[in-house]
């Protein structure tokens, strides 16, 4: 595959190029890919591998020229995860970073817009983390809300 | 001596006429939440054509009579729904679609959807199903008209009467974290 030749490492996975990288190297890899035809940034996703105590950030890129999909994967530790922002390369990354900051609590250095995004008035831990107990939260919050007590119907 | 003092027409009779008139011209707010909104285009357009019952969509809550809750309701949307509901003029009716506003449905353990709508707003008619078919929606409209005719669709009066309780529940849902922090 074109991307694997370009970077010189990685493997093919279900018809896509899958490149494992680390924090420091990632931005140079993505920059190189961008300069060589992979100029469509598809999305940034995050996986919580709670058993290994790590997060995996995956940068998806697509090339219209080579018709190829590349995934650049970065492993971060689960405690105080932080990554450098790449919004200089692709401006739309900023929004994905905001979302992942809110849902997983990953910090992106250099992104100045890590403000509350979709959740309103949220003070608990980031809800997409696997150790967030959604069921217990729902029971605590919504089951504690009482029913409306009605008086005897006297025909309003 | 006025119109309603018994000289010209009894208050009950006038009420009955006003109910007949109001059930024949129900306008619904164009406010859709969740996935049930996709069932409304067939109901509104020529296939099922709700215009034949005198129903139509209305872009402003000030001139609308029916509020449809079409599916799951997040806490964030509930704020907007309450805003819309309180802007509507009485008499006003609420129809809830699908299983989500009844008991949470498939979002029963979700962190951001309210589970039971009747704790925050008075609901006149429930439509079960996930999602209800347009036939079910039409049936709910006819049921609502029947209830209005019999004078049983009194959710808006309940909302006025138990306003404090509804407000308390809404605030509990909106500020759940803040209250917890203050209590701790």
As a percent range, the share of strand residues of chain B is 5-15%
Strand order within the widest sheet of chain A? Answer: 1-2-5-4-3
Total number of helical segments of chain B? 8
- What class, by secondary structure content of chain A? alpha/beta
Strand element count of chain A: 7
* Strand order, largest beta sheet of chain B: 3-4-5
Largest interface by residue count?
A-B, 23 and 31 residues
Please give the CATH class of chain B.
Answer: Alpha Beta
Overall geometry of chain A: elongated
List its traits.
heterodimer, A: 156 residues, alpha/beta, Beta Polymerase, domain 2, two-stranded parallel sheet, 4 helices, elongated, B: 184 residues, mainly alpha, Rossmann fold, three-stranded parallel sheet, 8 helices, 5 strands
Description:
The complex is a heterodimer of chains A (156) and B (184). Chain A is an alpha/beta fold and 156 residues long. Helices cover 26% and strands 29% of the residues of chain A. Chain A has a single domain (2-142), classed as NADH:ubiquinone oxidoreductase Nqo5 subunit (Beta Polymerase, domain 2, 2-Layer Sandwich), CATH 3.30.460.80. Chain A has four helices and seven strands, in the order αββαββββαβα. In chain A, β4 (54-63) and β5 (68-77) form a beta hairpin. Chain B is mainly alpha-helical and 184 residues long. The N and C termini of chain B lie far apart (61 Å). Chain B has helices spanning 11-23, 40-44, 75-87, 100-103, 134-150, 155-161, 163-174, 176-183, and strands at residues 27-29, 56-58, 66-70, 93-97, 125-127. The mean pLDDT of chain B is 86. Chain B is globular, with a radius of gyration of 18 Å. In chain B, α1 packs antiparallel against α5 (134-150). Chain B is built from eight helices and five strands; from the N terminus they run αβαββαβαβαααα. At the A-B interface, α4 of A face α3, α6, α7 and α8 of B.
